[in-house]
From TrEMBL:
Residue span(s) of domain SHOCT: 257-284
Superkingdom of the source species: Bacteria
Alphabetical list of InterPro entries matching this protein: DUF4429, SHOCT
Upper taxonomic lineage: Bacteria, Bacillati, Actinomycetota, Actinomycetes, Kitasatosporales
Organism: Streptomyces zinciresistens K42
Any Pfam family hit: SHOCT
Record's protein name: DUF4429 domain-containing protein
DUF4429 domain sequence ranges: 15-109, 140-229
Length: 287
């Protein structure tokens, strides 16, 4: 396979120009943004690229940037414009003295672009399942077939404890809503195909959402997770995922702790007698 050239290395990443794509390999190191380290590498087909730009950067640098087509990358689709400049996976920062070389690659790459307008499907691969991360109020996991939320008694609201741990097969989802913890209060909400028509509750009250801040579920963990779920939903459609077989048995110590916390909610008047009895029986059935 013929190549445009070889490798162009810059700050935190190196771009390898191939005949049909650009392979971006991210460095590992203390100064490399954690999102880049989590991604590892990304292959961007030429058909996924809308434009290539070269502009002056800060402190004697230039910036070579790929602009993906709308809808081509599940990561950017999930991010919905919330990524900070330093976390943009498609910026390559180079010393100003390499501007002529960067211009060459920009022009060569522009000549090979074939796509225009919104992409009809994701063209850049999403992070692969299984994935998981710890939010403030629970642990989120995705095995490629369903998303599970397991609530933490130290952070979950009484509404989520009443609802219990959640499992959402892909077939019942239409998408995801991700909010960056770097901008305000972060959350990941699963959008379901069937709803009762009411407005969604606040994320900390919604059993279909987990909430997080800078210390829980940061961008480099929650965004790849959201992108993977979004890509699986779009790729699979309503009949793609089978509901997993019976859930595994739970740790008795964990069940005991959850019953204890449920009792605290009951004593505080946040859970009725009927809700307490029903939820306790549900937890005991998991032993």
């Amino acid at each position: 396979m013929s190549r445009m050239g070889d490798v162009l290395a810059g700050s935190h990443a190196a771009w390898e120009f191939e005949s049909d794509s650009v392979l971006i390999r991210y460095e590992r190191g203390l100064r490399t943004p954690k999102l880049f380290q989590a991604l590892g590498e990304r292959r961007v087909p030429h058909e996924a690229i809308a434009a290539v730009t070269l502009s002056p950067g800060r402190r004697g640098t230039v910036v070579l940037r790929i602009e993906p087509r709308e809808g081509a990358d599940p990561l950017l689709e999930a991010a919905a414009g919330q990524l900070k400049e330093g976390s943009d996976p498609y910026r390559l920062v180079l010393p100003a003295e390499r501007e002529t070389l960067a211009e060459y690659y920009r022009d060569e790459l522009r000549a090979r672009l074939g796509g225009s307008g919104p992409a009809g499907e994701f063209l850049v691969a999403a992070p692969e399942a299984p994935l998981q991360f710890k939010a403030y109020d629970g642990k989120a996991s995705f095995d490629g077939r369903s998303v599970r939320f397991r609530w933490f008694w130290t952070g979950a609201s009484s509404a989520k404890w009443k609802a219990g741990d959640q499992s959402f097969p892909l077939a019942g989802l239409s998408g995801v809503e991700w909010r960056s913890p770097e901008l305000f209060e972060g959350h990941l909400r699963l959008l379901r195909r069937e709803t009762d028509g009411t407005e969604p509750a606040q994320a900390d009250q919604d059993p279909a959402a987990v909430v997080f801040g800078l210390g829980y579920g940061p961008v480099h963990e929650s965004l790849p997770f959201a992108a993977a779920v979004l890509a699986a939903v779009r790729r699979g459609g309503p009949a793609a995922a089978a509901v997993p077989a019976g859930a595994p048995r739970r740790d008795p110590a964990d069940i005991a702790e959850r019953i204890r916390h449920l009792g605290e909610l009951h004593e505080a008047g946040l859970v009725t007698d009927e809700e307490f009895s029903a939820k306790k029986a549900e937890l005991l059935a998991q032993l």
